[in-house]
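To: structure subgroup
Subject: Chain for Friday's discussion

All,

I'm putting the inputs and outputs inline so they're searchable in the archive.
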Amino acid sequence: MIKEDVFENDHLWRAMFKMTIPTIFSSLFIVIYNLVDVFWIGQTGDANQISALVLAMPVFMFMMALGNMLGVGGSSYIARLLGKKDFQTIKKTSAFCFYFSLVLGLLTNICMVWGMPYLLKMLGTSSATSGFTEAYLTVVAYGCYALIFQTAFSFIVRSEGASKESMIGMVIGTVVNIILDPVCILYFGWGVQGVAIATIIGAFTSCLYFVWYMLKHSTNLSMNLYNLRLKGSIIREVIFVGLPASISQIFMCISHVVLNNFLAKYGDMPIASMGVALRIYSFVPIVNIGFATGVAPLLGYNLGSGNLKRLKAILYRALGLLFGMGLIFLFLFEVMASGFISVMTDNAEIQVFSTYILRAVASTAPLLAVFFLAKTTLQALGRAIEPLILSVSRQGLIFMPTVIFFNKWFGLTGIVWAQPVADVFSMTMGVWMVFYFLHKESQKFNILKQRR
């Protein structure tokens, strides 16, 4: 099923909204179920379980990173192949992504089960949080197949224009998760382990929907073993283009571990406060990523078909919209931060510090929107090195040294402001890279026209 009108003939605004609105709603549901997790754990009245959920988050993000590698790389290649009408390679690419997601799940499962003691130590768990964190991660270890597959194929399905279907798959899993949370956490009394159980069951539900969609409604995507080909070109396009997205989240995992370890020096309260604030603020990066992800197939298709004029028009409109949304988020979080925090926890100490953190990280919301669009645009256009540099810079080369030095100079306050500082530098780099690449592509197309 290819919706070529969306890529080629629809009005720019209509095409953008068709592709981005479902992905934004899908992304919002992810944020909602993350918030629901914290809300229901908060009802237990146990701050250690909130901290355990925060401490375990880097592992969950690592699995999402593996799914993103296949999803971003595979969807970028498939969108460009659609522009070239190369349908056979699309089947081979989607089959490769399907089976490789299962291989990655198996490897992750083995590493987590056998390395759990080392993992808990690395995450910075204390005697009060270690048992809760292990209970959560044990469930996640056996459900990692579903988490990786769900993440990857939300991108793959969207790459052929089926943005609504991609949204439905994610929403189904999220709704199941939200329904099961209070049942597992409070009714059965499983606490933080109940969060993991609800999450995994929801992810498996999404996976079943995506498999059903590919079998019944897609004429191009395939999970047939016959189409599995370990061709160098497919592996290179999927892995090399998707790797920056994966490395970005892996560095986010590492930065969260570093952040949690620094926060742990000030006690368990800062960890819980940071977790609550960042869960609420996650609306900003998730919505930005959802919008940019929706636009990505349009950009990739138009590059593949050689329509640079339409590509640039889409990019400029997306840039204006995302920056505007960033300003709205900035206003809301600065004015209503304490209200948002009070919904999530009634712990007065956590409320005060979480409110401060939320206002600090929200200060660069418009710039973060531009950064994610720049990085996703480069991935959609088949670039590998530039998104990798951006990812490594924001979460590694800039962020982690900033945490170290700001902690030394300003203490706990410095740790809070490390990410906003990193966002400013990363956004500047991203914008420069996108415009430099588009300038080079314009020169290349002009030379080809002259030769013809």
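Points worth raising on Friday:
Residues 47 and 151 are 30 Å apart (CA to CA).
The chain is about 85% helix and 0% strand.

D.
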